[in-house]
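fwd from M.: "can u put these together and see what the complex looks like"

so here's what she sent:
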Amino acid sequence: MSQKIANIISDRATNILYGKEVSEKIESEISSKVAHLNAQNITPMLAILRIGENPADMAYENAVIKRASKLGISTKQFALPNDVSQSEVLGCIDQINDDDKIHGALIFRPFPEGLDDNLIRNRLAASKDLDAITDEALALVFTGKAKNYPCTAMACFELLKHYKIPLSGQVVLVLGRSLVIGKPVSMLMQRENATVIMAHSKTSSDQLKKLSAASDVIIVATGRPDTFGKEYAQSGQIIIDVGMNRTDDGRLVGDVSFDEVADVVDAITPVPKGVGSVTTACLLKQLVESAEKNG
Ligand code: NAP
């Protein structure tokens, strides 16, 4: 295990890597960029497209609007009913593409059944694709030429960077291989010269024990609570828990068994108050950069 990581973490009063101090730093950079844009009569504007009324989506949407408004970023909501037609959704994306005042879009997925995910996400103009949802943007992620990465993947990177966790030459294990998190975050870690191992639902528990024993940083994005318990954890490791799961009694929990892992490893992100708040900051940062570029 890396002595360098252990030294950095032992300097901290706690081994909990909170997202707040990371998002506050990103937001202070956003604030000064917004002031510059305002001086040129530009107000960054985020379009939010939601289909249906999923409570988790609506809660996130409200949090984004509140945060954006505090930073002087305006938002335009497009809320469509669950039974909306494909052509109406495409029409809405065209409206976003054609509106010069809109600098980027947050589009909630998955879409309701019957809507063509490929067709809809690929309709978004490249200049408004903050979350790298189009095939064109994803291709850039995989060729190492991306400006925008999916925001949650970027949030994992920003957290590691903020807490000065070294990545170059370190072994990073990523649990999960979705196009939204697992795959792009593994590309970001390789960009930083980490040696990346990817695990997924077909990785056996025995294999996972061996792979995690060889890893310095472990990013868990499985969408299932308690995927990563103390049987996989070791002293010296840094754990980034991307998961956001609602329990039957309404609590928000991650994919890691926090209570049993936190005491074993060197540092861990909590859920809530971990990756989630940084994701929103990364979304707004990418929006403001789009406003700087496209005016
Ligand atoms: P997803 O599309 O369901 O993908 C889950 C991935 O995890 C799949 O690749 C799956 O493998 C793998 N997996 C499932 N069980 C596993 C296990 N036991 N061991 C290892 N890998 C396993 O989910 P996602 O969209 O990537 O989201 C992952 C989590 O992140 C969810 O909890 C989601 O709510 C959360 N999330 C957080 C934020 C944030 O800002 N914090 C934002 C978005 C999403 P297969 O490919 O073999 O099926």
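replying to her w this: The longest helix spans residues 20-39.
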